[in-house]
């Protein structure tokens, strides 16, 4: 398995924001979102065995007591043995998976392990619109959510249409592309967003700035 970085931080995105987590970021992604803040993960990484990854996470977390792992990337589901890693990590941690929504999650995850899922739905400004694999809606469970990263009001209006189609029983996170005008988005959100959606920022960037490993 090709790993870009492993680090301890505060979850900065989505419904588990504020949780102390060990982040395991895998190398490579099948998409190329225009506003991706992790392009360095596309081709940087080193091969690590499952044992080495588990050991590294344990060492980084030693004395810190994080009870969560955030599996992210790049696109973590592209890594061979990802389900073996999930199996192993689930013995010690809660797991949050950050995935782009373009891959059928059911084909990659062991269904006997409870993984919380943050599934992206890419909007037009990303250049990756219509890459969402609709099968992923059927895998949504308690504690999972779909994240819409919004760059402009066209993205927002498309997100509102897609959220309507997905339905009210799925939790939604609307997240601004970092650096865009949050007030414009907040006004539109107040005006039109449904009750199953919430507007959330990338907290870690306000704490540490836009650097890797945090
Ligand atoms: C770097 S991606 C890695 C996981 C997976 N490839 C995905 O896109 O969900 C993790 C999260 O960061 C979000 N993200 C990436 N660049 C961003 C940016 N510039 N502003 C806000 N969110 C961003 C993505 O949309 C995704 O929700
Ligand atoms: N603190 C922190 N929280 C995050 N949540 C999702 C992240 C990601 O890059 O997948 C991320 C990240 O890079 N850092
Ligand atoms: S899917 Fe995720 S890692 Fe891949 S380009 Fe988009 S935001 Fe970046
Ligand atoms: Mg990040």
Automatic annotation (TrEMBL):
Catalyzes the complex heterocyclic radical-mediated conversion of 6-carboxy-5,6,7,8-tetrahydropterin (CPH4) to 7-carboxy-7-deazaguanine (CDG), a step common to the biosynthetic pathways of all 7-deazapurine-containing compounds. Mg(2+) binds at residue 38. It holds the Pfam family Radical_SAM. It catalyses: 6-carboxy-5,6,7,8-tetrahydropterin + H(+) = 7-carboxy-7-carbaguanine + NH4(+). [4Fe-4S] cluster binds at residues 29, 33, 36. Binds 1 [4Fe-4S] cluster. The cluster is coordinated with 3 cysteines and an exchangeable S-adenosyl-L-methionine. Binds 1 S-adenosyl-L-methionine per subunit. This is 7-carboxy-7-deazaguanine synthase. PROSITE patterns: RADICAL_SAM. The gene is queE. It is an enzyme of class 4 (lyase). S-adenosyl-L-methionine binds at residues 35-37, 74.
